Amino acid sequence: MRKVTIIGAGPGNPDLLSRAALDAIDIADVVIGAHRALVGIDVPPHVVRCELVKTADIVAALTDAASWQRAVVVMTGDVGLFSGARRLVEALSGDAQVDVRIIPGISSASYLAACLARPWQDWRFASAHGVACDIVAEAERAGELFLVTSGGEDPSRLSGELVQAGFGDARVTVAERLSYPDERITCATASEIAGQTFDDLNVMLIEFAGGVASSRWPYASSGIPDELFIRGDVPMTKQEVRAVALAKLRLTATDTVWDVGAGTGSVSIEAALVARAGSVWSVERNAAGVRLIRENADAFGCGNVHAVPGVAPDALAKLPVPDAVFVGGSAGELPSIVEAALEKNSQVRLCVPCVTVETLTEACALLSGSRFKGFEACQVSAARAEAVGSHHLMKAQNPVFLVSARGAGGEGGAR
Fold this sequence. Notes:
The protein is an alpha/beta fold. 28% of the residues lie in helices and 27% in strands. The chain folds into 3 domains: 105 residues, Cobalt-precorrin-4 Transmethylase, domain 1 (3-Layer(aba) Sandwich); 100 residues, Methyltransferase, Cobalt-precorrin-4 Transmethylase, Domain 2 (2-Layer Sandwich), CATH 3.30.950; 182 residues, Vaccinia Virus protein VP39 (Rossmann fold). The strands form 4 sheets. Strands 13-12-11-14-15-19-16 form a 7-stranded mixed sheet, sandwiched between helices. It is globular, with a radius of gyration of 26 Å.
């Protein structure tokens, strides 16, 4: 059986390689890794050296090199922290003739903690390396955040976003070229970091004291009071209906959500606060509504809300694959909207609020069909107390029906 050893090379300085990693390199037939990962590593003359980064290229090289028995793949950083090691292990798992071993390295997080002479067991971890990061959402969670970044402008840009959201006093540490002779660590406030220039090879540690005092909704629960939203003449889903609708959508922190016919964006905001590591795409045909969606997203600090001007279903074609869809308004296009969602994800979760009997009939017929499972229909009838003299009377709100279901697509569905 052939052996593949995946090694964590640490921040970059080859002096940080473990003895076990060096021993694996010494007996290898082939050593593979990015240029930065291999620079400075003493590879024996008889060992084939391949500078590759992408998982597919690495797997192809291992497949083509029929003569090797022991291969080493060197990964920058540690194999367990935002590393390509996971994808490589998954790609090699189908080959019964290959035994995979992993040797961890020193992570940039542990190295930085040592430089700062402080513990790191309470840090949270996120990445802005080639992926979107809602830094404002992270700030509202408070605590200490270790952030993997990329590009010389990222610390400056991310700090600028914090300043705009009212977190300018957050303590930011930018660590450049860790473990190299020209290593530099800068500690300052987000306000002081914004506008500076940093080396492309950097990571950040951000310490948040807590949420901003002006945060409109500092709670984890849904059901934001209607009066907290910026209002106009555009229709808005009411508080009690929103709370039940969010429960029907069964959102997770990383979900991609469509809010079709988003109105003022109240459902979008509620969804965005749950799916902080995901995204919400608010489709609205009314220009005033689009403006209100953006204003409310700014007011609640929801940088993961994207207002999409347009008419469904045409406006849905270029949206990312949804995990959940709320159809707040369909303008007579409910079947087409449902079809567009299913085409993107055959297991999508849908919730359709219905005010009229006609919409209710149509929604029930669609979501109770064979292409769905978990069909539910409920009526939300709320009444609110209003003062009448020295007493309070309950004033009924218009009843709303919520029809929900999940696509019944097989495991081969889009998501």
